Structure formats: C-alpha cells, structure tokens
Amino acid sequence: MKRFKLVAYYEDKDTHSRVAQALIVLAQDVKGAVAAAKSALGPRALGGHILAIEVKESDEVEAGVVYTGEPYLPLNWPLDNVGQRAPAAGSAPRPAARPPEADGGSFLTLDDFIEPT
Q1: Whole-angstrom Cα distance, residue 99 to residue 109?
Q2: Are 61 and 25 in contact (CB under 8 A)?
Q3: How many CB atoms lie within 10 A of CB 53?
Q4: Rounded to 5 degrees, what angle do the CA atoms 11, 17, 18 make?
Q5: First to last CA, the chain
Q6: pLDDT classification of 115: cutoffs 50, 70, 90
Q7: Which residue did the predictor score with more confidence, 71 or 4?
Q8: d(Cα 10, Cα 37) in Å, to the nearest integer?
C-alpha cells in the first residue's frame, strides 16, 4: 500500500473559478490514487472534469494506527448504563446513585437545583 500526496486542478462548478486542491490518498498504485481523486472531486468539478492531477509525494505505508490523540476526561462514559434495567410498569423510577464524596464534600448534581413538583 502506498500513500500519495496529490494536487488536483479543476474548475469549480459553483463559482466557475479555477482551483487547486491537495489530497492524500492511500492506494496500491498511481492509477488507483488518480481514480480515487477523480471520484472524490468529480462532483465538485464543472462537468465532472479534472484538468490535471499532480503527484507530489509517494511513500510506502503499512496498515496500523496513524493517529493517537491526547487523553481527556469524557463527559459521558460509554458503559455507565450497562446492567441497569428499566423500571417495571407501574413502579416509580429509582433515582440515580449519587457520585462518591471527595475530601468530605459532596458533588452537586442537577437534582440539587431542581425543585420537586
């Protein structure tokens, strides 16, 4: 597999201006990269016509992780509700468990600000 950096030249169908656009394509060969570029940019080009595609770089690549971001604190944890069942019909819903206390203080939740009706 190869990574190609291409520059495509075409006339934009909306503005009728001549534009150049950079693309990075993963393909087996140049022919496949050009075909992928034409299919991606064809709808933007006037009449679907790409004037020229210039190959700027070509490097061998292997499959694998290509980007790893920095860790962050998520607002929602994906498995929070696993194992919880919906309340039975006719029964009152159970309130959610409060988060643990830290340093003797308690965390505020939305329930602390909403008056019961």
Answers
A1: 9
A2: no
A3: 21
A4: 55
A5: 63
A6: confident
A7: 4
A8: 12
Cβ-proximal residues to 52 (8 Å cutoff; 6+ apart), any chain: 8, 9
Residue that is written with structure tokens 């468990």 in the block: 97
Is the per-residue pLDDT at 38 higher than 90? Answer: yes
Which single residue is written with the structure tokens 């950079």? 22
Q: Which residue has the tokens 């061998």?
A: 60
Length of the chain as a residue count: 117
SS (H, E, C) the chain: CEEEEEEEEEEECCCCCEEEEEEEEEECCHHHHHHHHHHHHHHHEEEEEEEEEEEEEEEECCCCCCCCCCCCCCCCCCCCCCCCCCCCCCCCCCCCCCCCCECCECCCCHHHCCCCC
